[in-house]
Amino acid sequence: MSRFPIILSAPSGAGKTTIARRLLAERTDLGYSVSATTRPPRPGEVDAKDYHFRSTAEFEAARERGEFAESANVHGHLYGTLKAEVDRVLSSGQHVVMDIDVQGAKQFAAAFPQSVLIFIVPPSISSLVERLKARATEDSRSLARRLSDAQDELQALDFYKYVVVNDDLDTAIKSVSSIIDAESLKRTRGGEVIDRVQKLLADLEREIGKHTER
Ligand code: ADP
Ligand code: 5GP
Fold this sequence. Notes:
Layout: E1 5-9, H1 16-26, E2 30-32, E3 36-37, E4 52-53, H2 56-64, E5 68-74, E6 77-82, H3 83-91, E7 95-99, H4 102-111, E8 116-121, H5 125-135, H6 140-155, E9 162-165, H7 169-184, H8 192-213
Parallel strand pairs: 1-7, 1-8, 2-7, 3-4, 8-9
Antiparallel strand pairs: 3-6, 5-6
Helix pairs in contact: 1-7
The protein binds adenosine-5'-diphosphate and guanosine-5'-monophosphate.
């Protein structure tokens, strides 16, 4: 079956990482592209699992070597998708899930037009603020920066093919899962469905032959 990149973007705190993690736990046909970043790890984050944590010099050297499929400055830190991560997941036969910002999504989709772009929005700004506070990962300056960046991010909505409101988490996860299923069945993605129709046509021709011989 043909595999494709699935890009999840959202204002910080809307819940895209939570949705991505749950989908990855529930579906064996998905793999995660672990991004590189210069942001310091949060408590509990593990190098090479949550992110490849890099110094600015290391990140820039990797960018010079052409190792990124896209990269961007987000909320004051550098983030990038490693080509090797995307290749690793796609070559293992899985769709590649990417949790990246709007600038990165635009760069990546230009290079990989088969990507599926999904925008996750919070049900309200008060819940966005509550979630960011409850996550307790940002100091007040970083939280203010993330809220102010959310203005630009929400305005990029038109670039995305799908929008999912993350109010009830289970419902949002089901919606994203349904989008992946529907995209997998697109005729234009080719894959085994096309082979199946070719076989149906060949069998049908034989069947018609049998009936006209009688
Ligand atoms: P993002 O990756 O978009 O920045 P996270 O996935 O880290 O956001 O979610 C931010 C916080 O909100 C986390 O503490 C998470 O557990 C919580 N959260 C995510 N989705 C929901 C939801 N539907 N209802 C309530 N809390 C949620
Ligand atoms: P966080 O610091 O909360 O993990 O992520 C902050 C922002 O960076 C989010 O919008 C997230 O989607 C984005 N991000 C994470 N990885 C990448 C990446 O590889 N490329 C780009 N462009 N953005 C990323």
